[in-house]
Amino acid sequence: MSYLAPSEFAVKVVDAGESKLHMATRDVLIRAYMAGAILAIAAVMAVTIGIQTGVPLIGALLFPVGFCMLYLLGYDLLTGVFVLTPLAWIDKRPGVTWSRILIHWGKVFIGNFAGALTVAVLMAAVYTYGFAAEPNEVGQKIAHIGENRTIGYKEYGINGWITIFIRGMLCNWMVSLGVIGAMMSTSVSGKFIAMWMPVMLFFAMGFEHSVVNMFLFPFAMMMGGDFSIMDYFIWNELPVALGNLIGGLALTGLALYTTHVRTAPKSKF
């Protein structure tokens, strides 16, 4: 696999966060747009396979192909930059400020959302013959998923909000391990294996990913899901994004940085 030791790839993680903050706005938006679009295609493929086979695990096993492809192509997800960019600030890299980080997050959010929304419109047209027919079985199923993951949480009030926040934390703990996985090896096969495992786990467990949801919920609304845009943002996207941020940064980024960059034992030779 051409495996790199943690002390080696942990430094690459910080370098990656710094480089992303110095990218031109055009590149940030293009890379984020394509990442959102590719992940959306992978998500609808995984859900479709789960419905057709009646075995959701098969969809979870295949979903990571989209994640692996977008990261090998150098595209960016919001969940990834949540982890990488703050480490450059913690490491006191020159020119890295919180204002720059927050602006970068905003650009990536816009790009991811635009890409995911584009695929949502295209797939809605596919599943309704250009909006001339009722949604097929997959479209109807996703509409119900959208309802369950908004109104379903809303019914439990603050406890529902906390639950989806925790599911967002657990999600990006796994997904960010996939982001780091791309840096663990110098071979394509090694990168694929290291990215595949945690991303498969997140999807199989039904955790909440903010970028996947940028596709799922607009698509569910187009398929007739009975919930509002405000329901989506307040009872899903907001708590999920916050959970993704806290889970990925605390459980992956800071843990790796603290023990493999900041306080790693130094050789005496």
Would you kindly provide a written description of the structure presented here, covering whatever features stand out?
This protein is mostly helical and 269 residues long. The protein has a single domain, classed as Up-down Bundle (Glycerol uptake facilitator protein). 78% of the residues lie in helices and 0% in strands. It contains 12 helices and no strands. It has helices spanning 6-21, 25-53, 56-62, 64-72, 78-90, 98-127, 137-148, 151-154, 158-181, 188-205, 210-222, 229-262. α3 runs antiparallel to α10 (188-205) and α5 (78-90) packs antiparallel against α6 (98-127). The longest helix is centred in the last third of the chain and has 34 residues, at 229-262. The radius of gyration is 19 Å and the shape is globular.
Which SSEs are present, and which pair or pack?
Blueprint: H1 6-21, H2 25-53, H3 56-62, H4 64-72, H5 78-90, H6 98-127, H7 137-148, H8 151-154, H9 158-181, H10 188-205, H11 210-222, H12 229-262
Helix pairs in contact: 1-5, 1-12, 2-3, 2-4, 2-6, 2-7, 2-11, 3-10, 4-10, 5-6, 5-12, 6-11, 7-11, 9-10, 9-12, 11-12
Task: List its salient traits.
0% strand, mainly alpha, For/NO2_transpt, 12 helices, transmembrane, single chain, globular, Glycerol uptake facilitator protein, Formate transporter, transmembrane helix, formate transmembrane transporter activity, 269 residues
